[in-house]
Amino acid sequence: HEKLINNQIDIAITSNAYPKDDRIGRLFICSEPNVIVAPKGTGMKSINGTYSWQSLKACGLPFARYTSNTASAQQSLELLSAYIHEDLPKRYEVDTHSLLFELIKGGKAWTIAQPLALLGENESLLEMLDVLPLPSTGPNRSIWVLYPEHESLGWHVRLRDICRKMIEHDLLPKIIGHIPWLESQYHFDTAE
To answer: Contact, 111 vs 76, CB < 8 A?
Structure first.
């Protein structure tokens, strides 16, 4: 945000929900769901096939999250605090997707993440982990193009359109091929 205002960078693609600032323009790319990612076959599913917040809390596995200085950590902690008003079992803090997903694949933890993060790390992870909807409706992660407001929109709009096309036509089919229920969870028209 500050780097854009101070002309240190020309553009940012981010999932951070920065406060409204008249000096920063925003173009919405898409939104994607937050999902529960757990070790394959952990048995944390309830009878109806979904997790409950209480079953996650009592599953015996610690919650793993990104270090607190990342947007993903802030989003997952805000989401959890809205539903679980007590501390979770011992938790891990990691600073990379690869370490986070290796912990989960190894049966050591569970987390809240986004499907694009799983795909970005390794498409085969989509088969090695349980990826399930949140137990209750939660906020989606929105992805934005941010730019200094005083600049022309031409190339920023083109960049947004390229990002949308890549996600919608290249990445999303790979995700849906492994996790079909996610098809209706991505939105490209308006921010949620």
So the answer is: yes
| Beta-strand pair 64-66/129-133 | unpaired
Q: Please, are residues 110 and 135 in contact by the beta-carbon 8 Å criterion?
A: no
Cβ distance 55 to 44 under 8 Å?
Answer: yes
Per-10-residue mean pLDDT of the chain, 192 residues long, equals: 82 78 89 89 60 74 73 57 57 84 92 88 86 78 87 85 95 94 87 52
Q: Residue 147 in contact with residue 25, Cβ under 8 Å? A: yes
- CA 68 to chain CA centroid, nearest Å: 15
Give pLDDT, residue 54: 73
The tokens for 63 are 């919650």
Q: Where are the alpha helices (DSSP H) in the chain?
A: 2-5, 53-57, 71-83, 97-105, 115-121, 125-128, 154-165, 172-178
Other beta carbons within 10 Å of 70: 16
Q: What angle do CA 118, 119, 122 make, to 5 degrees?
A: 90
Among candidates 68, 3, 65, which has minimal Cα distance to 34? 65
Per the listing, tokens 């730019």 go with 147
DSSP, residue by residue, 42-61:
-----TTSS--HHHHHTSSS
Distance from the Cα of residue 182 to its chain's centroid: 13
The closest of 15, 11, 27 to 116, measured between CA atoms, is: 15
